[in-house]
Amino acid sequence: MRRNHRGQLRLVTLLLAVALLVIAIACRSDSEAQRVRPRQLRDVPAQRLAFTFTADVDPPANVSTEEAKAIQAIQQDFDVRRKDEALVLHRTVPSPDGQRALALYSEQDEPSTTFHIDLYAASGSFIRNLTPPDLAVVFQDSVLWSADSGYIAFVGRKAAQPQASPTPPGLEPPELQESPVPSPTVMPAFPPIATFSTEQIYVCNRDGYDLRPLTTRDGLIYFALSWAPDGHALSALACKESEWDAREREFKTPAGRPRVVTLDGQERLLDDQLAQAPPVWSPDSAKIATAFDVDIGIYDATGRAPTQARIVLRERMLTASAAFDEKSSAKKSPDQSKPNTGGMTTGVPVSFNPIVRIEWPIPEKLYVQTGYLDLRNALPTFSRWHLLTLSPQAAVLGRG
To answer: How many of the other CB atoms lie within 10 Å of CB of 78?
Structure first.
């Protein structure tokens, strides 16, 4: 009897020890889960993000629908002193600190698709020519100041050199005698700078000095630039000339492969698929987002092992568009309803269109704009805004 009693006591003691061990391990696991709980969304890898989708919301508060205008004092300088030149679309690009501005201008005999950049004080005082004559600047929306006003970025290519037409026989001009006094140069002297046959990213400091190409991949066209909020890098899209030309023939807006380029020229391709929406940075500079038709790609911008995520929204967008169309048609009489001119296939809701713009005002909220847009439209038609609310996946929090 005593032996049985002792055996039972040992069994109870063993079971109690095992139970205490299990409790200790559970407490330790919960403690470790608390330690890996991300303090900020920037600490969550892109592949570990969760989201909720809300269709048809108001656009974010920071979205401006007004066209950029020239600073009046700079416009006056062109009207009075520089009558042979004109600001491109009457536009200047002020620095975030409000002290300086970039004047985008062209001469009368230059192609309308290219322009030059001059640096001005915000008061309207000319400071210096920023771009040399052999560098043609393109894409007005890619002339950007960094958030701290310390750097300027733009896209440029080799300027087309005018070719002299042959002189008919008998009309050759008389030989000119060399003048002992050299004539003054019209443009200031620029240090030599590499130029390329396709559009590359250029960067310089706030004073217009140290101008250099940040990318040198002749054959690729870079566009849709965006500065990281902390100024450590730029995001961009890039495509081959043949890809650009093919979309242009179909009146489609450009599409390119997203990438991140640091100020030392290091470039990282983010995705092999062509994206249509200009990339945007998260406010903490930790991630980059772009769009592929109606899907979102999110990428870690930093880190030794960056990850990526693809948020597939097609089914959600189709459902939301069908509900939107039904609600809209209820407000119209039958003769007021018109089919979509965006070329959508039969059976697809009229309001179903690709993502054309992304805004990321705070880390947890990603706004996307859908609409029909081609090279003949300045603004998208059938425009709608939707919201993705981001959060860490449950696995990151140690709860699943």
So the answer is: 19
